[in-house]
Design a protein that fits this description.
Layout lengths: L10 E5 L3 E5 L1 E7 L3 E6 L2 E16 L4 E14 L11 H5 L2
Antiparallel strand pairs: 1-2, 2-6, 3-4, 4-5, 5-6
């Protein structure tokens, strides 16, 4: 397994619990209307709420814009929940 040597940084901005901008995103692991799981430079980020949507995803820049009713945001120190070598989008486009 390859380890990441440099951390680019991570930023989370929430506006009125309706929109959010996240940087330092390595992978989008899963998303539905109630939960979005992101792998970031600082660990796993889980956003819970209702009517959640990924409005913009820039894999090259590591940025994600979210919208919906944000109820909670939590981090986990586990860098990867289950990593078979493929992320969500890699599996989707196989």
């Amino acid at each position: 397994m390859e380890e990441r040597q440099t951390q680019k940084g991570h930023k989370l901005v929430i506006n009125n619990r309706k929109t959010s901008m996240v940087t330092g995103v390595l992978d989008v692991l899963s998303f539905d209307l109630n939960e979005i799981m992101l792998e970031t430079e600082q660990g796993m980020l889980i956003v819970k709420g209702t009517d959640l949507h990924v409005n913009r995803l820039s894999v090259e820049k590591g940025e994600v814009d979210l919208a919906g009713n944000i109820d909670s945001i939590s981090y986990s120190n586990v860098s990867q929940i289950s990593r078979d070598g493929d992320g969500f989008f890699a599996k989707l486009f196989k």
